[in-house]
């Protein structure tokens, strides 16, 4: 999991994607340079790591087609078990370190479908979702597609 940073994760999508986990969990490593928790070296982190209990449902962030999965090699080139989804000609998302992959390449998915379960396979120090967004083939900061949820109170619960 990441370089020790933690942020509140009460997030909602800004139009393209919805949050890929069913609830609020800690971001343990954001996109960008960090001290790698395995090697101890400073390196660029291509996604956002979100800590969650093993077996937590991972949700498709948007409608799309599963491009590729790794369901058999728990190392998976450091990603472990993973799912990659193409959403349109511009966007792809990747969901890594899964304990189990529930979809197959070529399968159509809808936003919110359960596609995998959180785990700690591959190059990982604990249960989490490594979530990447690729725009036009380039990895971009996934958090740019989310905003903090506004917490509003129902005015009817207050007595005047």
Overall 3D geometry? globular
Query: What series of H and E elements makes up the topology?
Result: EEEEEEEEEEEEEE
Poorly predicted spans: 1-9, 152-160
For this structure, the CATH topology is Glucose Permease (Domain IIA)
**Broad CATH class:** Mainly Beta
Distance between the termini: 48 Å
| Total number of beta strands | 14
Major sheet attributes = 10 strands, antiparallel
Percentage of β-strand residues: 35-45%
Helix count, DSSP H or I runs of 4 or more residues? 0
* CATH superfamily grouping: Glucose Permease (Domain IIA)
Radius of gyration: 16 Å
Mean pLDDT: 82
**Helical proportion?**
under 10%
**Number of discrete domains:** 1
Write up this protein.
- The chain is mostly beta strands and 160 residues long.
- Helix content is 0%, strand content 41%.
- The protein is built from no helices and 14 strands.
- It comes from Candidatus Limivivens intestinipullorum.
- Residues 44-141 form the M23ase beta-sheet core domain.
- This is M23 family metallopeptidase.
- Pfam families: Peptidase_M23.
């Amino acid at each position: 999991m990441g370089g020790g940073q933690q942020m509140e994760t009460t997030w909602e999508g800004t139009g393209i994607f919805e949050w890929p986990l069913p609830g609020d969990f800690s971001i343990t490593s954001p996109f960008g340079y960090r001290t790698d928790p395995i090697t101890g070296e400073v390196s660029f982190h291509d996604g956002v790591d979100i800590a969650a209990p093993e077996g937590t449902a991972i949700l498709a962030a948007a409608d799309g087609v599963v491009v590729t999965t790794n369901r058999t090699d728990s190392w998976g080139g450091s990603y472990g078990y993973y799912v990659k989804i193409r959403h349109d000609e511009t966007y792809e998302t990747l969901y890594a370190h899964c304990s189990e992959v529930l979809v197959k390449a070529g399968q159509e998915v809808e936003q919110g479908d359960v596609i995998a379960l959180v785990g700690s396979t591959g190059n990982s120090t604990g249960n989490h979702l490594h979530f990447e967004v690729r725009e036009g083939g380039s990895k971009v900061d996934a958090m740019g597609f989310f905003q903090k949820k506004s917490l509003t109170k129902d005015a009817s619960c207050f007595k005047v």
